[in-house]
Structures are given as C-alpha cells and as structure tokens.
Design goal:
Largest sheet: 9 strands, mixed
Order of helices and strands: EEHEHEHEHEHHHEEEHEE
Keywords: NADP, Oxidoreductase
CATH class: Alpha Beta
Shape: globular
CATH topology: Rossmann fold
Number of domains: 1
Bound molecules: NADP nicotinamide-adenine-dinucleotide phosphate
InterPro entries: NAD(P)-bd_dom_sf, SDR_fam
Family: Belongs to the short-chain dehydrogenases/reductases (SDR) family.
Distance between the termini: 11 Å
Protein name: (+)-neomenthol dehydrogenase
Organism: Vigna angularis var. angularis
C-alpha cells in the first residue's frame, strides 16, 4: 500500500482542543526525541509528565525546562518501562497525583545496543523488554486511567520504526501470521518467543528475520502488530481511544550517535502535531513516518 501524505499544514494546530487540564505522559523523556517532545507539549500548553528510568536524569531534564521557562506544567515521575514493578508503581503514582485523566500516552522510551553498521543480537531479551513488553505493560496498566469521555479521545502514540515494517521480514510464515486480519496478542507473543528461541539456539540468521538491527527491528515489528490489535479492539468510534505508531526517521540522537537527517526537535514537532490532532481528524491504527529531512509525513492505511 502506497503511503499517503498526511497533515502537511501546521495550521491544524490552530484547531486547539486541549487546555492546561490536558495531561500527557512521555516515556524516556530525559533526552533525545522524548525530551524534545515534552518541551514541545509544554510550549503548546499541555501538562506533561516527563518520565525517566533514572531519577537524577529525569529531574535534571525538568530543571532544564524550568530554566528555559517552559517547566511550570511539567511533572516528573520515575518509570523504567522494562521493569513490571516500576510500571505498576508508576501507574499508582499517576493515579494518586492526577486521577483518571490521562489524555495522551507517548511510548517513546527505546533502546538499541548496536552501532549503526553492527548487527549483534546479544541484547535481544532486554531490547524486547524495553521496546515491546514495556509499552504493552504500560498501556495495560494505564487503561483504567485514560480519560476517555464523549468530549475527548485518549491518544496512544507508539514511537516505532520503519525497521519494524512487515516487509523487512523475509520469512513468509512469520509474515503470514502477523498479516492476519484476526491477529491476536498471543500470536505476537508467540512470534517474539520464536525469535528469542532462534537467538538462544543460534539460528536467527537463517530464519528470515529482518536483516538490519535484527533484535531492534523485531521489537518494533511486535510493537506495530500490538498497536494494530489494540486499535482494532478499541476501534475508535465511541470507544474514545486512538492508537497509532510514529517513526521519527533517521534522527540525530544518542541512539544514532548524533547521526541523522534531522534533529530531535523536528521529529518531536511532528509527533506533537500527530498526538494533538483535532478529534475529527484523528485516525487510529495508522503507521506514520517522517519523510527524509523531516519535510513531510507519510501514513500507511494499515499498521
Ligand atoms: N533516533 C532515530 O533515528 C530513531 C529512528 C526510529 C525510531 N526511533 C525511536 O525513537 C525513540 C526515542 O529514541 P531516541 O532516538 O530519542 O534515543 P535516545 O536519545 O537514546 O533516547 C532514548 C530514551 O529512552 C530511555 N530509555 C531507555 N530504556 C528505558 C527504560 N527501560 N525505561 C525508561 N526509559 C528508557 C532513555 O533513558 P536513559 O537516558 O536512561 O538511557 C532515553 O531517555 C525510541 O523508541 C527509538 O526506538 C529513533
């Protein structure tokens, strides 16, 4: 399916539906795209919970925003998405502080341990825990805290990657499972388990998994598939929940050792626009990707 160009006009932001009461959570908010996104939300007048797995780094990020004059409505909460206990503690802290008022959840935190030209799968378990199981657990823990009302739509934006596109999977059987219209959560877990088994048993190279940044690509493949299942489950009309994925493109952050076609601010500006689309223009179950040099955004009709 050819991607379509999407909302090239920044004037969409003039359709402001949010207020200071609108609450966003951004994971991995202490640096990179996450930090730039927290800043963008704060500049646009959204209240943001900046989360980070390290207290000092998280608090320092909030302090930087205060010094820049945009920190008044930014709060910090500790969250290591790869740790189920941290996820449930975070959900309880959020509930105690804000109640069931979550409007926007951006699952941004992510890891890759490879240099750009490497392809080790040494950290496959940890990458899967952070990039796939983490967002999944967090969404499940926060579902009861989503605001969802007849006036607002809660938005889940999963920061993913084109590397996790189905067309990167060379094994036709795996692709067939993930392409199924009736795909179930358990089947995605099954694919992830199969990959981890192939890694443990040293077979992963010949089993047709994505060939570049393999462990990272499989984690994002699973995240995309889960987003699709979720979007379908809450298929939007009346459910008050929208779930989309966003690939920021090759962005200059620590993950790419500063290489990339654009900076974190450009990627974050696009992510913010997406997360803040007015309700009548907000899709669900879409995969958005930022085009080269961050000049346009593509949307495929299906994840
Ligand atoms: N940069 C790109 O070219 C690119 C392309 C496509 C997709 N992406 C995606 O964009 C997202 C942001 O990446 P980035 O480029 O901004 O990378 P980054 O600068 O390395 O930032 C990653 C963030 O995730 C946090 N993080 C890692 N593991 C975590 C965990 N277990 N719990 C909570 N936070 C954790 C990091 O915290 P610490 O500081 O504590 O490590 C950091 O705040 C990721 O999901 C990445 O996969 C990036």
């Amino acid at each position: 399916m050819e991607p379509e160009h999407y909302f090239p006009s920044p004037s969409l932001l003039l359709t402001r539906w949010w207020t200071r009461e609108t609450v966003a959570v951004v994971t991995g908010g202490n640096k990179g795209i996450g930090f730039a996104l927290v800043k963008r939300f704060a500049e646009l007048g959204v209240s943001v919970v900046l989360t980070a797995r390290n207290k000092q780094r998280g608090e320092a990020a909030v302090e930087t925003l205060r010094e820049e004059g945009v920190g008044d409505y930014v709060h910090f909460l500790l969250l290591d998405v790869s740790d189920p206990l941290s996820v449930s503690t975070f959900a309880s802290s959020f509930k105690a502080k804000f109640g069931p008022t979550l409007d926007i959840l951006v699952n941004n935190a992510g890891v890759s341990y490879n240099e750009l030209e490497e392809n080790s799968v040494e950290h496959a378990e940890s990458v899967m825990k952070t990039n796939f199981h983490g967002p999944k657990l967090l969404i499940q823990a926060l579902l009861p805290l989503f605001r969802r009302s007849s006036f607002s739509i809660t938005r889940v934006l999963n920061v993913s990657s084109r590397l996790g596109s189905l067309n990167k999977v060379r094994n036709a059987d795996i692709r067939a499972v993930l392409e199924r219209e009736e795909l179930m959560e358990e089947e995605i877990e099954g694919v992830v388990d199969m990959f981890l088994r192939d890694v443990r048993e040293g077979r992963w190279r010949k089993e047709g998994w994505p060939s570049y940044w393999t462990e990272y690509a499989v984690s994002k493949l699973a995240l995309n598939a889960y987003s699709r299942v979720l979007a379908k489950r809450y298929s939007y009309e009346g459910s008050g929940l929208s779930v989309n994925c966003f690939c920021p493109g090759f962005t200059q952050t620590s993950m790419t050792k500063g290489k990339g076609t654009h900076n974190a601010e450009a990627a974050a500006a696009c992510a913010a626009t997406l997360a803040l689309l007015p309700p009548h223009l907000l899709p669900t179950g879409k995969f958005f990707s930022l085009g080269r040099a961050a000049t346009f955004l593509n949307a495929t009709s299906k994840l």
